Each structure stands twice: as C-alpha cells, then as structure tokens.
Amino acid sequence: MNIVDRRANPKGKSLGNRRRFIERARAEVKGAVLDALRKRKITDVEGSEKVSIPTRGIDEPSFRQSASGGKRHYIVPGNKEHVVGDEIERPQGGGQGRGSEASDSGEGTDGFEFTLSKEEFLDLFFEDLELPDLIKKKLSEASAPELSRAGYSVSGNPANLNLVRTMRNSMARRLSLKRPKREDLEALEKEVEELADGPEALRRAAVERLDALRRRSKAIPYFDPIDVRYNRFERIPKPNVQAVMFCLMDVSGSMTERMKDLAKRFFMLLHIFLARRYKQVDLVFIRHTSTAQEVDEETFFYSRETGGTVVSTALAEMKRIIQERYPLDAWNIYAAQASDGDNFGADSGRCISLLGDLLPVCQYFAYIEVSESADGMGDRRMDRTDLWRSYSEVAPAHPNFAMRRVGDPSHIFPVFHDLFSRGKAPAA
Amino acid sequence: MAAILNAPTSLLYDGPEWDFDKLKRVHDAIEVIARKELGLDVFPTQIEVITSEQMLDAYASVGLPLMYRHWSFGKRFAYNEALYRRGLQGLAYEIVINSNPCLCYIMEENSMTMQTLVIAHAAYGHNHFFKNNYLFQQWTDASGILDYLAFSRDYVLKCEEQQGVQRVEALLDAAHALMDESVNRYTRRKPLNFAEDRKREQERRQHAETTYNDLWRTVPTPEVIKSLGATELARIQLEQQQRLGLPEENILYFMEKFAPNLEEWERELCRIVRNIAQYYYPQKQTKVINEGCATFVHYEIMNRLHDKGMISDGSMLEFLHSHTSVVFQPDFDDPRYSGINPYALGFAMMDDIKRICLNPTAEDRHFFPQFAGNKDPYGTLRDAWANYRDESFILQFLSPNVIRKLRLFRVFDDAAEPNMMVDAIHDEVGYREIRSALARSYDISRREPDIQITDVDMAGDRTLVLKHFVHDGIVLDEKSCQAVLRHVAELWTYAVKLIEVDAATESVLKTHEVPAQKRRAV
Questions:
Q1: How far apart, in whole angstroms, are the C-alpha atoms of residue B484 and residue A60?
Q2: Which of B152, B217, B352, B469 has the most C-beta neighbours closer than 10 Å?
C-alpha cells in the first residue's frame, strides 16, 4: 500500500477544458455578461461574476427515452396508505420514479449558473475593444521616472547597505583566508591559563600559537571594505499608469431618471474599460444645473435638482479640478459628458472656448446625448439641440473628441463599442 | 502491525486531525480485518491525498485521473463548481479508480474518521468489487486502463495539432453523443488487453493502407438492380448485410469500420471513445451492488474497529452520522426524493442477506432456501458480489423483509389512462411483482433504448437505417433524437433514418430522418 500526497500537484488541471467550454458557450456567456452588467455599480467590478447561461448551445445530446407516453412501471419507496387498486394523479413533468434520471445527467433544460473569474468576465466583455491608437501612443509616451532595483554596487549610501550580500562576502573571505574562529582563540587562551603552572616548554609553545592566531586574526579583519555591497537603484521611465475619469452630467429637471440610467451605464462601461488599462483610476463626478458642483457617486446619480442648464459651468469646474488636483504629467485624463442636449442659448460660445482648453489635455472626451424616446438614434429633432450644434463645431478639429446619441439601453454597448472598436479612429 | 494485534485496546488515532502515520496505521488495521475476517480479495491500493479543487477536477473528467481535452469536461467542472461554491452539493469524500493498482483519492478536508471510513469504503469495498465482479473482469482491463488513457490523451493532442482543435472537437462531439450506443452488450470478447490492442491497430492500419476496400466500388447501380430478379436481389442484400456485419448495435464500431468518408485519425478517435464507453459499461450496470458492497464493507469494518477498541466512541458516532446520511432513503412524497438511493437499497439488501444467513425466519427459508441459515454471510455475499449485476442481484436477493422496510410499492402508468394506478404493495401477493419490476428497472437494456444499425441503402443514396426497438410504447425523446441523428449523419456523411418499431409487433411507430450533414470545414 502506498500513500501519495498529491496536494502539491499543479492545480487547474481543468483550466484548459474550462476555457474551451467558455469558448463554446461564448455567445450565451456574453449575453449573460452584458445582462449582469446592468445591475452593477460603477466601481463595483472587483471580484468575480456569476453568470447563468442557458444550456442550449452547450447541449450534449444522447438517445433518451421520452419522459411520457407508453406503459411504465415505477417502484417507489415510502408507501403510507396506498393499497392495490388506488389511483394516483399523474404528476406534471414525467413519472415520479424517473426523477433521478434527469438530474443524474446534470442537464436540466433550464440554464445553469457558474462563476467567471474577473479576468474571464472582462475579457469577454471587452473582447474586441481597445483604446484608440492615438491614445495608446500618448499612453506609452507619457512617462514618469521611477526608481527600480538594478543589482548591487560596491559604493553607495549607507541606507542602501545590503546586509545579506555583505555578510556573505565577508564570510566567504574569512573562510577562504582561514581567519581563526573565536572558539579556537578562546580554547587556546584557556589552555594557556591552565598551563600557567605547568611545564615551561609546553606553556611557551601554547603562548606562541596563541600569538600567531591573534596576529592572524588581526591581519584578517571581520569586515573588509571589499565585502561591502549596496543595493543599486536606477531611474527608469515608467509609462504613466494612473488615470482620472471625469463624469459630467446635466441633472436639471429635464433629465429624467431613465436618461440618467442611460448615462450611468455609459460611465460604468468607461470606468471598467479604463480600470483594465490603468493601475489606478480616480473618479470625479461633476453635476450641473445652472451651477456645477463636485459630488459623490450616490448624489450624482440619485439626487434631483431644479434649475436652468448652463453646461459651461461643469466644464469650468472640470478645468479647475484638473488644475488643482491632477497635474498633467502624472495623470491621464478622460472625460465623459452626458446631457439631454439642452443648454442656455448664450452659453454655447463659452462651452466651445472651454472645450478648446480642455481637449488638448484630455486623452479622450466623449459626449453622450441621451434622449427620452427609445428611438433616439433616429429622432430628427435631436439634430438641433443647442449643445450638439455647438459641439459639432469643435469635433472635427479634435480626433480625441467623440459624440454619440443614445436613446435606449440597448444602444449603450454598441455606441461604446463603436467609440473604442479596435483599429478604428473615433469619428464624430 | 504486531503491536496493534497484541494491544487490541489501543486507539489507532484520536481527534479529528489526520496525518500520514495515522493513515498508514488505520489502513493496516483495516487490511487485517478485510482480508482475514471478511475474506476480501483486492488489488494493491494506492491512496492519494488531494485538495477539494483537485477533487472537482477529477469530477470533471468523469472520475478518471487523466483524460483528453474536451469542452464538455469543462462544462461539468463549471457545473459542479457552481453547486459546490453555493453550498448546494458537498463533494464526494473519495473517488476510486478501477485500475491496478487501485487508486483512491481522498480529500485533505476529511477528518480522520472520514479518512478511515473512506479507506474501508473505497480501498477495500469498491476495490474488492472491481477485482472480483464478473462484469469488470470481462469488460475492463484494470492494469491497462491508465496506460490507455495516457495514450488516448496524447493521441487526441496530436490530432489537435495536426488537424486543428475545431475538427477534433466536432468529431468528439459526435462520438460522445453515441457513447451509450457504442458498447458491445452481448458478444463475449476475449480478455481486453489495451497494449496488444494498440499494436494490432497499427498493423491493421498498415494493412488497410496497402489494400483497397472493394465495398464501395462494387455497389450495384440502380439499373443493374432493376434488371435483377427478386431472389437475386435478396441474395445481394444479404451478402451486403453480412459484409457490413449488420445488424450492429455498436454504432461507433460500425462508423470506425465502415463509414465511407472518415479519415484514419477520425476512426481512431471513434475507437478511443467507444473503448472508454465500454470501460464504463460495467459501472452503469452495477450501481446498487457496487455501492452496496462498499457501504456494507465500510459498515462492517468500522463496527469491528470499534468493537476492538481501535476507534473511540466519538469517532464511531461521527461515522454513524455520515453513514446514516449516506444510506438515507427519502419517501416518494418527500421533496428530497429523487429516485431510489443505490446506497440505501444495496446496503439494506446486503445487511438483510447477512441476517438471513445467520437468523433466518420461516419466510426467509421459503424465499431463499439456497442460503438461509447457512451461517456463512460473507461467503454468500462474496459470491453475490462476484457473480451478479444490479438486475440479477435484485431479482435473486431482494427479500420481503427489505420490501417491507422500504415500504416499496409499484405504480402502473399507462399513458392511455387518465391516472396512474398502484398495482402492487408490500404484501404476500406483491413481493414477487415488486421484486421483478424493480429488477427490470435496473436492467440496462430497459433503461436505455435498444437501437441498432440495420441497413445501408447501398443501391441508392447510401442512407443509413437505424432501428429503435420500442418496448411498452416508450419512444425516443424527439428533440435529443434529432440532435443525435445529426451527429450520426456527420460521421456517416450521408442521410440517416431512424425507424421506431414496436419490438413485439414489428409495426412502425415513428420515423426520424436527417439529411446528409456538412462536416465542419477545416
């Protein structure tokens, strides 16, 4: 008999099969992933996602007897009151005795639920999206020097002394040069002491040996400058890995809950997308009516305000926050603005000039115009909203500015997809 | 071990923690009981400790330690994992592989008592059954299976490299759908030997390459057929049938040998899939007797360990707790009911056989004159374990006492009637009825549809004709049938027709047809 401990064996023997399965069920899984996304908070992407998919596309058929029809006998346990001749109503969905067969095979007709890891989830979600080329270039150019370990050096700052290396060198040197050990010295000293009253010749020999050892020990130091090693650091340029995302939204009376929900979904997508590319993503929420104000997420989405609409106040607020908190050399700036397109007539000029300031410092600025009607994409009236008209003037000059209309939750992802789809420069 | 025998009052272990020394001690003590007192005869065992995640892995590859890659295993993994994570399903405490040496996987999470139980259950109960049961001896090659699995995994991998994952996957999909219909049920073969088999396969391949299959060229054209007389036609058809070995119940075997457009690697994959199906065939027929055997053995061993003072009262209580939940049989009107629990039925029957051997009643003597009161319960059980499968075991050994205990009754369900009817209960008249009906419900030929390839339209469009012999008017499930037939057509590359005929009257009940399927392009 053998007992073998297999616990240390590589895990994830099923990973390959699992990947194949997800590949196979891709269409279903993807639908479920999009579904799941609707229920989440913007920053709530940590952790894994449960998805429930129908078994349709991943069915493994086999010849099975149909569950109804014909003449059957069932043997069932637990008779309490039945006697021969009793009639029992036929239960729905097949006979009682066959319950186990359906569950044995593990394939109910209703879908089954399993958990995707965060990586799997996001991979599926952003399957064919990437940051537009322009922005990627900026991303790699944007750099901040960072210290990075780069081996050891023989000179340096005492704070960077590497004790382990130094001790190792010292020990190697002491061993190879046969520096007397302290125990040997002590033993010899003791011997000399014991021989104090002993025969002179022996004592002298011991003293000589002790002197020789002491000399040797002095000549070969415990630490020598050649032993010392320091940690070396090098400054290497690191791509900029933090981003801030500005969410601007009109919260005036004309924005309904539904429109806000549409906007939220877009913001959420953008956040998840950025979070995959950057180590750290800050979120700044700016809402505006006739004045603008930085708020937290909760207030941003769920509180209502009344008042007119002056879009430029939000842009001005954004500009102020950038100047105050987000130095351009350290942060990549993304902005997404959602509005129903209403603006105070005379404000448009100011918006354009503010945008002119903001766009050069932003990696990407997306303007989403949400509309009440589900067919917002085709609504002719929308062509003439104040904001849309004035933004249209700015758009052509700035490839990192994009504007789209969204009228229905189902448009959100296509629009997002359109903005970031691989190999396609965003066009206004 | 001598120390243990000399000091029978000493505990083998104490407390819930296990370590390798304790496992070894417990195993040795169990071995003495199993071999000397119960007379079990087992393969050498290898106990492997694994984590719960590895257990899930093992689940996914249908309990085999190595397996080729296929998405369906990933699906099973995802499914089990979800159930486990949500706490809906505990993991099995062990998995045992019918191989020589017999591999028992035990989980690190188990307490020492559970490990003891598992060793008794798997390493001795199942192991004895695998080694001695006639079905396993006849149909599986315990010493070759691991090598064969390694071979098939590597072969599939090689195919994937050469042919692309998609093509291999499509072929395996089709083959998996036919797994249940791809075992040899009746022909007795000489003992399997996978190693030799592989060598033969290579030789066969070489031979096939140097010769040419005349079958497809000599098909008579429609004109020729028209000119032939009826007797001549019948003779040609018979000849063809013989040449193709029809009727054939093993669908993948037929595809492997006769499907006109399969490539060599596709034939080999069909072969691998049907060999694995064959390996599982005995297991499907012995759920009750196999689990019953293991449960009975662990129950005996644990009790004896306790009687000898080798395990503490606390351990015994822990064991009884898990034992009773294993052999729990919910009543039919209980929401937990999902059919008859094979552990419960098997254990109840075997426990009763022991009682009949030792303390028979007059009724037992009447029902079981062969062994009632023979005072040799283990010999009787060993004989049952060696020579029966579920169906025959129940037919021979289900006692009135067990029927009463489980309060079994029979319900007759005729689709033509509005209601179902109770037509036998646990009384004098009903025992034999219930016994034979229960046995029949475990008969694999009743549980699974009887489907055979009966004809190939060689003179026409090469349509493959399958027949389903319908018993008691239970036809095939329409949807899954269509899906499987599409897979058959993929392999056959011509149209496929399945006719459902009543087994008794030969009258046609239903016909399913599937046109030729395009194979998935490269």
A1: 9
A2: B152
Please name the residues between 10 and 69 in chain A that touch chain B, using a CB distance below 8 Å.
Answer: 11-14, 16-25, 50, 58-69
Round to whole Å and give the CA distance between B432 and B425: 10
The answer to whether A342 touches A252, Cβ cutoff 8 Å, is yes
Contact residues on chain A for B123, CB-CB shorter than 8 A: 1
Q: Which residues of chain A are within 8 Å of residue B418 when distances are taken between CB atoms?
A: 90
Strand A143-153 to strand B464-470: parallel, antiparallel, or no bridges (unpaired)?
unpaired
What is the DSSP-derived secondary structure letter of residue A345? G
Q: Which of B28, B180, B440 sits opposite A63 (nearest CB)?
A: B180
Q: Are A382 and A388 in contact (CB under 8 A)?
A: yes
* Per-residue tens of pLDDT for chain B, all 522 residues: 444 444 445 788 887 888 888 899 999 999 999 999 999 999 998 988 888 878 877 777 666 777 888 888 888 777 777 777 666 566 666 788 888 888 888 888 888 888 899 899 989 999 999 999 988 888 777 788 888 888 898 999 999 998 888 888 888 988 998 988 888 877 655 555 667 777 777 777 677 666 655 555 555 566 666 676 777 777 777 877 777 777 888 899 888 888 888 888 899 899 899 888 888 888 888 989 999 999 999 999 999 999 988 888 888 998 998 898 888 888 888 888 888 888 999 999 999 999 999 999 999 999 999 888 888 999 999 999 999 999 999 999 999 999 999 999 998 888 888 888 888 888 888 898 899 999 988 888 788 888 989 888 776 778 889 999 988 888 888 888 888 888 898 888 888 999 999 888 888 888 888 887 765 443
Q: By the CB < 8 Å criterion, does A81 face chain B?
A: no
- Which among A66, A87, A101 is the nearest to B474, CB-wise? A66
Q: DSSP secondary structure string, B429-447? A: THHHHHHHHHHHHT-HHHH
Cα separation of B273 and B168, whole Å? 12
Question: What separation in angstroms does the CA of B206 have from each of B203, B213, B264?
Answer: 5, 13, 11
User: Between A348-358 and A386-394, two packed helices, what is the crossing angle to 10 degrees?
Assistant: 40
CB atoms within 10 A of CB A288: 26
Model pTM score = 0.66
The encoded tokens of residue A342 equal 């209403």
CB A122 within 8 A of CB A45: yes
Which residues of chain B does A18 touch, with a Cβ-Cβ cutoff of 8 Å?
A: 74, 77-78
Structure tokens at A396: 């052509």
CA distances in angstroms from A316 to A292, A299, A349, listed in the order given: 8, 20, 13
Nearest CB among B74, B406, B484 relative to A21 is that of: B74
Q: Is B501 helix (H, G, I), strand (E, B) or coil?
A: strand
Q: Measure in Å the smallest separation between the Cα of A41 and chain B Cα atoms.
A: 23
SS3 of chain B: helix, strand, coil, percent, to 5: 55, 10, 35
What span, in angstroms and rounded, lies between the C-alpha atoms of B70 and A16?
A: 8
What's CA B447's distance to the chain center, in Å? 12
How far apart, in whole angstroms, are the C-alpha atoms of residue A26 and residue A34? 12
Q: What angle do CA A227, A228, A231 make, to 5 degrees?
A: 135
| Whether ipTM exceeds 0.90 | no
A92 contact B CB<8A = no
CA–CA separation, A205 vs A210, rounded Å? 9
Q: CA-CA distance, B499 to B495, in Å (whole number)? A: 13
Which residues in chain B are closer than 8 Å to A99, comparing Cβ atoms? Answer: 337-339
Closest-CA distance, A13 to chain B, in angstroms, reads 6
What are residue B7's phi and psi, to 5 degrees?
-120, 75
**A90 interaction partners in chain B (CB closer than 8 Å):** 413, 418-420
Paired tokens of B485: 């037939």
Which residue type occupies B18? W
Give the number of other Cβ atoms within 10 Å of residue B42's Cβ.
20
